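User: Hi! I'm working on a homework problem where we have to compare a predicted structure to a textbook description. Could you give me the structure for the chain below?
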Amino acid sequence: MRHYRWLAVALALSVVAYAQQISFGQEPKAAQETKNEDDRSAGKKKAPSSDLARALKAVPGCLGVETARTSGGKNVIFAWFENKQAVMKWYYSDVHQDLMHQWFPDADYKKPLKDVPKDSGPLLVIASITPAKESKFKATTMPISQIAIEFYQPVPGGTFLGGRFTPAGVKVPNMRDYTSGDKQP
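Assistant: Happy to help. Predicted structure tokens:
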């Protein structure tokens, strides 16, 4: 179970690390160190938020991505995947692997998501991170006070009017659509 937690943290890290940077305009330390003097003096800076969202959305089986900041200060990414195999495609993507090894270089990465069944169906991965002024953990130099990843699946039911938070590609049994094509007087 301990290794499963590390893998979950690594997956969350890749998604959430950029969310932290979105809010604070930071780049990972390695990215800062590799910039040449011309880029620094010209004030050029990559936009990691668009890069991460684009990378997530490009993964076959990713159904949608949303980001948010909670009133408690957490940066959150919601990523919907078609199934476990789609999550695994993200896990092994170059973007994710680079982030994992950049922020947690000494972690012992084992088989990811081994406790999630192959026929899992759609998965919502919620990754959250709370920025801090300095790192609070020996495992990373990332300035955070909290990082978590959680997996959820749709259950039958629910209602909506005019749209859903969940992407349309996520099929939810017995969900009621109260959207009408005609405006009521």
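For your comparison, note the following. The beta strands are 62-69, 75-81, 123-131, 144-152, 159-160, 176-177. Residues 1-49 have pLDDT under 50 and may be disordered. Good luck with the assignment!
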